[in-house]
Amino acid sequence: MDAPSLGFGPAGDLRPSASEAFGAYRAELIRHALQLTREPEEAAEIVQEAFLILIREERLGRGPLQVRAWLYRVVANLAASRARHRLVVRRHAEGQVPRPESADPADTALARRDDAERLVRAMAGLSAEARIALVLFAEGYSGREIAARIGRSSGATRTLLCRTRSRVRARLTAPDQGAVA
């Protein structure tokens, strides 16, 4: 679909607003997302999320100059991110032995405490910066937000997080169950 006709946006701005872009590009973006995901519901969710991101960026005064191209890139990135997430979840699930269900809540609490202790031991040898980054990541902070908190570039933070997660994962899966390697 070609770009919308002139007249979009505030006072002479030729960029469409998020609501105008939604009307102009939604259907083609869903088709694009559907090609990437092969799942109609997921494709619709991805496109909706892309438009929510566009609205947030506009409110922050960082709206893209090429809205259509930007939306295509965001949709592709979101689809790739979800695919990576599914792969990690699948890999994690295949490597886990499910715990037997316990009727006793004390057993569940004991298992959680044991897991927490193993995690503390696995994180013991990490630098303070790596521990902070990992905790912030686990709490849902973005890489950019973590980078700002620990005073690193986004690229350096991504590298730090990747290496830290790998170290902790290796320590947690080691035969001695979390001892510092």
Give the arrangement of secondary structure elements:
Blueprint: H1 18-37, H2 40-59, H3 67-95, H4 105-123, H5 128-138, H6 143-150, H7 154-173
Give the CATH topology of the largest domain: Rna Polymerase Sigma Factor, Chain: A
Query: How much beta, percentage-wise?
Result: under 5%
Order of helices and strands: HHHHHHH
What's the CATH architecture of the largest domain? Orthogonal Bundle
For the largest beta-sheet, the strand count, sense and barrel status come to: none
Helix fraction by DSSP (H/I, runs of at least 4)? over 70%
**N/C terminus separation:** 56 Å
Give the overall form.
elongated
Mean pLDDT: 81
Structure annotation, total helices: 7
| Name of the CATH class of the largest domain | Mainly Alpha
Give the C-alpha Rg.
22 Å
Strand runs, count: 0
Residue stretches low in confidence (pLDDT < 50, at least 5 long) are: 1-12, 177-181
Number of domains: 2
* Coarse structural class: mainly alpha
Describe the structure.
With 181 residues, the chain is mainly α. The protein has helices spanning 18-37, 40-59, 67-95, 105-123, 128-138, 143-150, 154-173. It has two domains: 18-90, Rna Polymerase Sigma Factor, Chain: A (Orthogonal Bundle), CATH 1.10.1740; 117-181, Arc Repressor Mutant, subunit A (Orthogonal Bundle), CATH 1.10.10. The protein is built from seven helices and no strands. It is elongated and about 60 Å long. The protein starts with 17 loop residues before the first helix and ends in an 8-residue tail after the last helix.
